[in-house]
Amino acid sequence: MCTDFTSLNKACPKDFYLLPCLGRLVDRSAGHEVFDFMNASRGYHQIKMLPEDEEKTTFMTEYDLYCWRVMPLGLKNAEAIYQRMVNAIFEPQIGRNMEIYADDMLVKSKMRGEHLKNFRETFARLRDSKMKLNLKNAHLR
Q1: What is the DSSP letter of 71?
Q2: What are 90-122's pLDDT values in tens digits?
Q3: Per the UniProt record, which residue ranges are transmembrane (predicted)?
Q4: Does residue 73 sit in helix, strand or coil?
Q5: What does pTM read for this prediction?
Q6: Exposed/middle/buried for 85, CB within 10 Å: 0-12, 13-18, 19+?
Q7: 133 phi and psi, to 5 degrees?
Q8: Which of 31, 53, 110, 136 is the 20 to 30 Å CA partner of 62?
Q9: Nearest Cα to Cα of residue 95 among 112, 110, 82
C-alpha cells in the first residue's frame, strides 16, 4: 500500500533529530572481536500512532477509508522518531557493546567470553520494549 503524505508532510514541522554518523559507528567498533548483526522487523511499523494522529493518515481504497494505527513509511519525521526511540531503548549500551543505525543493530564484544552477556542484555531490552527482529536478515554467531 503506497500512501501519498505530501500534504501532511508539508504541514508538519521538520524534526531535526539526526541519524548517527556511520564513520563514528565504525570507529567505535574498532578493537572488538565478536559482532552480531540484527535488523528490526518492520521497524517504523513497531511504533503506534497517537490516537489523535491516526485520522491524519487516512487513505482511501476502492472499498473504504482506512487510517494507519502504526507509523507508516513516508512520513517526514518517521526516521527521526524511530532513531530517537531506539536510542532511548538502548542508550545504556550504545557505544559500549552496541551500535544502532535506524533499524540495523550491531552487538559487539571485545572478548568472546563477554558476548553472551552482551547479547542477553540486548535481548532483555528488546523484550522489555516489545521490539521484534527480522531473523532472516540477522547474522548471528
Answers
A1: P
A2: 999 999 999 999 889 999 999 999 999 999 999
A3: none
A4: coil
A5: 0.85
A6: middle
A7: -105, 155
A8: 53
A9: 110
Find all residues with CB under 8 Å of 17, minimum gap 6, and list them: 80, 81, 83, 84
Written as nine digits, the cell of 21 is: 554518523
SS3 content of the chain, % helix, strand, coil (to 5): 40, 20, 40
Pairwise CA distance, residues 53 & 43, whole Å: 19
Q: Cα–Cα distance between 97 and 34 in angstroms, integer?
A: 10
Residue 30 confidence (pLDDT): 93
Residue 56's nearest CA partner among 3, 4, 8 is: 8
All 3 cell numbers of residue 128?
A: 522489555
Say how many C-beta atoms besides its own lie within 10 A of residue 77's C-beta: 16
Say which amino acid occupies 43: G
The CB-based long-range contact list for 58-63 (8 Å cut-off, 24+ gap) reads 59/1, 59/3
Give, in order, the Cα–Cα distances in Å from 4 to each of 26, 54, 72, 74.
Answer: 35, 15, 11, 8
